[in-house]
Amino acid sequence: MSIHEECGVFGVMAQQPEDVASLVYFGLYSLQHRGQESCGIVVNDDGVFVSHKDIGLVGEVFTGDILHSLPAGTMAVGHTRYGTTGGTNRNNCQPIEVNHQKGHMALAHNGNLSNAAELRSALEMKGAIFHTSSDTETIAYIITQERLNAPSIEEALSRAMNRLDGAYSLVLMSPQKLICARDPYGFRPLCYGQKEDGTWIVASESCALHAVGAKMVRDVEPGEIIVFSKEGVQSRKEHCGRKQPRHCIFEYIYFARPDSVLDGISVHSARIRAGECLAKAHPVDADLVIGVPDSGLDAALGYSRASGIPYGIGLIKNKYIGRTFIAPDHRLDQVKIKLSAIEDVIRGKRVVLIDDSIVRGTTSGRIVSLLREAGAKEIHMRISSPPFLHPCYYGTDIDSQEHLIACHHTVEEIAEIIGADSLGYLPAEELWTLTGPDLYCHACFTGEYPTEIPADTRKDRFERRLSE
Question: What is the three-class DSSP state of 55?
């Protein structure tokens, strides 16, 4: 079992009608690492919404014919999904579209509400009928409720934010406006930029801005609402400062692409620092440092620099297999299909193996076995995060202590289980070295939650109701 990504959101507002669907397509392609279950694009063609959504990777769902079938427009929103709440089915594909008394709305969401179950139950008791098992639909319902009495869509969103708790980075499209918002904790990243022709771009990560030729303006502040319209750009900050910011530390360790900059901090540099910290906390005599592709590579480079042990490429990833690769019913080792070891590099060496995390230990054990088969003399595993000890309620797929190996075994026992000669984790007290001051959520490591723990913590907590 590996940790699954969040979701990626993307929005475009052009000055004149153009092929905005292609811009979103390229943006989602660069955010594919954040979710590989499903994706979708909604185009605003002079107030008429046209969409395509389906299960699959961006390149699979949006063929040339599909992209050409989407009209030109001045606005569009897109989403690539990994479902931390709700199962994998077409109903849960985003963006979610809503038609209501005051117009249309398309909504894309990254994160997880910690009070989703309570909000949904209250809505159901008032007659709301849900078509998905995603908490994004709950957000859409609440915004729609507020819009019936609010003078504008941005005011409705602001009022809705008073009722939402937990993680949400949103991109919302109405017939006339593109709006983005970030929860007051700032759990999930969100930024915006502009192309030379004046087109505004909103994205989960800065790498997606660069992919479409946009220059980053800045990150959306925690609690901020930004409205893009024909009148220009308006920032609303009535929710800013209501909570202490708590950006997800695991974005820097694993989720985000290394070429992204989140809240002013380079992801690549943060991972280098993690590796340097590991080298100081868990030194070892070895001949070679290698990383598990892709998120372990930067930390491996940092470990090598700090320890003086040569860095090498010892594992090669099959670039044509996505993270959601599903093997046929043959009893084959999926790790061997995804990764291969370079025997000439590994044979006879004492190897330091760097990875970003250990969840159940199954994958780590298979990678260690792969290196043993390649002739490694010793394998010393180092993890660029602390042990997972607690579930996450803000969008990361860590939902049960039952499946976390570190909750049931000591470090020495885990090393024995995975077959490593030694094992060392990044010390939790050293997390600050990655990003600076302690303005980050590290609850999955420490159990220090910024919000109240949800009463219902099941990942698919709405699925049962839909199937009854």
Answer: strand
